[in-house]
Amino acid sequence: HKIKDFLEVEVKDKDCKRYVGRVMLNVKIQPSPKWIQERLIACGLNPINNVVDATNFVMLELGQPLHVFDYDKVVGKKIVVKKAKANEQVTLLSGEDITLDKTMLTICDTEGVLAIAGVKGGKKAEIDSDTKNIIIESANFTPKLISQTARKLNIRTDASMRFEHNLDPNLAESAMDRVITIITQSANGEVVKGCIDVYPEK
């Protein structure tokens, strides 16, 4: 299995400074190990499942937000990072419908929006108990844009607050390695060889 047979990433906007993507197959979604749950709770986060918890754990540990999509719900096996269309709609993980504007950066598949970049994930490709295959995103975005978007939408998340503080794009890679290690331990699964890394200005 090679990554390019599974996933393509196209970054159409320079407000995405780096996008690292990896794919894992046959993960088993279940509650996280107790040690991860305890650490998340101690930091004020609710445990959800072993995959989502791993991303939150690494965010707390390294400061780099990560996002996971259900691979089988991503249309066209392609991730496109681009600005939203005027009045484009997305349903958030919370079930809330949000209207975007042309200044906001989105993570899309070939059909529509999967997430508001750096702010919040959408419902469309969320991880649930039937998820088998996943795409992991570790990316870096222009801080000013993320803070503007979060303010306009009145959504402040752990991710947006971190992105607003101008993270080092090099962190995206170490956070990816770390989260893969934790997910492999807690969800088994097979890591597809290789890594997509769009990093125009090192």
Description:
The chain is an alpha+beta fold. Helix content is 28%, strand content 28%. The protein has five helices and twelve strands. The chain has helices at residues 34-42, 50-62, 143-153, 158-163, 171-187; strands at 8-11, 16-27, 67-70, 78-83, 89-91, 97-99, 105-108, 113-116, 120-121, 134-141, 188-191, 196-198. The strands form three sheets. A five-stranded mixed beta sheet has the order 1-4-7-8-9. Strands 2, 3, 10, 11 and 12 form a five-stranded antiparallel beta sheet that branches. Strands 5-6 form a two-stranded antiparallel sheet. A hairpin with a 3-residue loop joins strand 8 (113-116) and strand 9 (120-121). Helix 1 (34-42) packs across helix 2 (50-62) and helix 2 (50-62) packs antiparallel against helix 5.
Short description:
With 202 residues, this protein is α+β, with helices and mostly antiparallel strands.
Structural class designation: alpha+beta
State the shape. Answer: globular
Q: Which strand-content bin applies to the residues?
A: 25-35%
**DSSP summary, beta strand count:** 12
Strand order within the widest beta sheet: 1-4-7-8-9
* Average of per-residue pLDDT values: 97
- Contiguous low-pLDDT stretches (5 residues minimum) are none
H/E element order: EEHHEEEEEEEEHHHEE
**What separation lies between the terminal Cα atoms?**
28 Å
User: How many strands, which pairing sense, and closed or not: the largest β-sheet?
Assistant: 5 strands, mixed
Radius of gyration: 16 Å
What portion of residues is helical?
25-40%
The DSSP helix count reads 5
